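Re-run with default settings, no changes from the original entry. Doing this only to confirm the output is reproducible before filing.
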Amino acid sequence: MKNEKTEAFCKEIEKLHQRFELSKTVGPDYYEPGMMEYLDQSEGIYNESTGEFLIRFEARGTRYDGRTEMIEMVHTGDPVNIVREKDNPFNANNFTLVTLHDRNVGNMPADLCNAIAPLYDSGELVFSSASVSFVDPITKRSRHARQAVLFVEARGTLTL
C-alpha cells in the first residue's frame, strides 16, 4: 500500500517515463529549449513487486561553481555518488552529484529531490548505483549554449 511519500516518488518516476515516451512521438528537429531537449535521455521505472527502481534524469545547476569545466572531464559510464545535502541553502532536500574524483557536477532536479529525500532519510530508499548516462559538454554544443548537459542514471530499492 502506497503512502504519501511513496505516491510523490511514483509521480516523479512517471514524469521521467513520460518524457521518454514523448521522445518516441516527436521528430529529431523538435526543439524547446530548457524543457524538451534530450527527451530520450530521461526515464523512470519502478517495479512495485520488487521495490527496484531506475531513474535517469538531467543534472541541474551545471553552470555554477565551475561545474561546466568539471563536466568536460566526465564521460558516459563514469560512476557518480549521490550525496545527501541537508544544509543546502536553496533546498534542504537536495542531493548533489559527485564524481569519484570528487568533482561536483550538479544536483538532482528539485522535484525529484523533494520526493526522494523523505524516503532516503527514513531509510526506505537506498541507491545501489549511479553513473553518467549521457554527457554533452559545453565545448561540443552550440556557441549559444550556456551550460553543459549531463544525465545520470541511478538504480536502487524502495522498501515499504
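The chain has three helices and seven strands. The radius of gyration is 16 Å.
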